[in-house]
Amino acid sequence: MNTIDIPAHVKASVLLETMPWLRMYSGQRIVIKYGGHAMTSPALQESFAEDIRFLHQWGVHPIVVHGGGPQINAMVKRLDLDAPFTQGLRVTTPEVMDVVRMVLTGSVQRELVSLINRESIWAVGISGEDGGLLQARKTMAEVDGRKVDIGQVGEISAVDPSPIEDLLAAGRIPIISTVALNADHTGGVLNVNADTAAAAVAAAVGAKSLIVLTDVDSLYRDWPECKQPIERIGLTDARAMLPSLDAGMRPKLGACIDAVAAGVRQATIIDGRQPHSMMLEIFTNKGVGTMVVTDDRAQGDSDE
Ligand SMILES: Nc1ncnc2c1ncn2[C@@H]1O[C@H](COP(=O)(O)OP(=O)(O)O)[C@@H](O)[C@H]1O
Ligand SMILES: CC(=O)N[C@@H](CCC(=O)OP(=O)(O)O)C(=O)O
Q1: ipTM surpassing 0.90, yes or no?
Q2: What's this model's pTM, rounded to 2 decimal places?
Q3: I need a surface site. Which of 72, 249, 267, 292 has the fewest CB within 10 A?
Q4: Which CATH architecture has domain 8-297?
């Protein structure tokens, strides 16, 4: 870790600023969605792992739900397969499903676990398939008002949080890959959007907060001009914005809305390209990114 030569009183005030936040989050669950585009460099991955260890060390319970879209794309290309997106969802043939499973659970999850465990042994990887954690029903995409079959793609229908509870009770950090069991009990698996899965997990474990790391510094009201970043947005306003968003951001804001509507106190979209953006969001008064909250908290409230 870099130590920068800053005056002692500044260091002390930074440490003191973390106190109310540590009090607020100590003993609480925070679900962190780590998107494929936020895993762009080894240095960023290292700072992500440091933040996760820090949270755990201070008695917060981080639960990581990871994506891996770009990593799946790279493997699909290497294998000379075709897996385009329709309405933000990957068209998933049985062959592509094998690749999704191999990349998410066999590669991205393994790397995250080993990175976090480099200085500790707290992280344990599980797949949505394990212990019935994520169950999904096959879904269709809607194009021009028509339902289109996009293969083995699912929408979360149930979350059984007990595998996560077991790990938390044992002092572990769960690292979850978003491959889901098909709820039709045929033993098959479905590919689910990782943002949506993270929201369902956050709701099921009673998380205090959902943090979604991505590759943009904020949600913008005027995308792609980017002159109007949104710091905080209430559910009604967020729902009204949803249909106008591009495919990448739509599931993210949708996930934040679902999580907050299900009782998660706040859901924040932050820039995973900034080192330690997670720490800044959780432990500083200003925070970073775009926070989705219930309407009554949209103007800010006294405990933050
Ligand atoms: N209103 C908006 N504000 C910010 N970003 C937006 C907006 N609409 C669409 N986007 C796009 O959504 C992208 C994030 O989604 P995505 O690429 O799927 O990320 P990830 O891989 O992290 O899940 C941003 O990089 C940006 O290009
Ligand atoms: C159905 C569907 O589209 N699933 C995604 C799952 C991974 C994901 O969501 O990864 P990011 O968070 O990095 O985008 C996919 O196959 O790419």
Answers
A1: yes
A2: 0.94
A3: 249
A4: 3-Layer(aba) Sandwich (3.40)
